Amino acid sequence: MRIGTGYDSHRLVEGRKLVIGGVDIPFEKGLLGHSDADVLCHAIIDAILGALGMGDIGTHFPDTDSKWKDASSIALLSRTVELVKKHGFEISWIDSTVIAERPKLQPHIEIMKKNISGAGIPSGAVNIKAKTNEGMGFIGRGEGIAAQAVCLIKSL
Ligand code: MG
Question: Residue 10 Cα, ligand 1 centroid: separation in angstroms?
Fold first, then answer.
């Protein structure tokens, strides 16, 4: 068995869609990034790559490559899950936390899980938690959203 951790954060700006866990969440701002800036998927991708010992999201999907411009992060996650299988592992468990002051994410968590299982991770193997930052720091001021994840993989 192997374990990996992932962390990501993105800036909240006007004129962008807010996509978290593949869900389009109605909000006055969205996350800024080269892809859809799906902070949860990015943290999970990094956790999986960490467990595989295969670098990070920037190595696999560089933001200098126009191929990944506005890319769906669920699609990037799906490619990452293929790497897991290719290297003789399977995902045992993913736990994750999204830290956002606003909007409320709890109503969207079940759909996020469905989207993530659509990328090849069994929905029974994913947990997603939503927290605020109690008004502190860049998250508390509504300047950005962060996510953390851990992933356990086992060899087949
Ligand atoms: Mg990111």
Answer: 6
The CA 8 to ligand 1 mean position distance, Å, reads: 5
Cα(148) to centroid(ligand 1), Å: 11
Domain count along the chain: 1
Q: What is the CATH number of the domain that holds 116?
A: 3.30.1330.50
pTM: 0.97
| Cα separations in angstroms, 46 against 4, 27, 135, 137, 141 | 8, 26, 27, 24, 26
What is the CA(1)–ligand 1 centre distance, in A? 26
Q: What is the pLDDT along the chain (156 residues), one digit of tens a residue?
A: 999 999 999 999 999 999 999 999 999 999 999 999 999 999 999 999 999 999 999 999 998 888 888 889 999 999 999 999 999 999 999 999 999 999 999 999 999 999 999 999 987 999 999 999 999 999 999 999 999 999 999 999
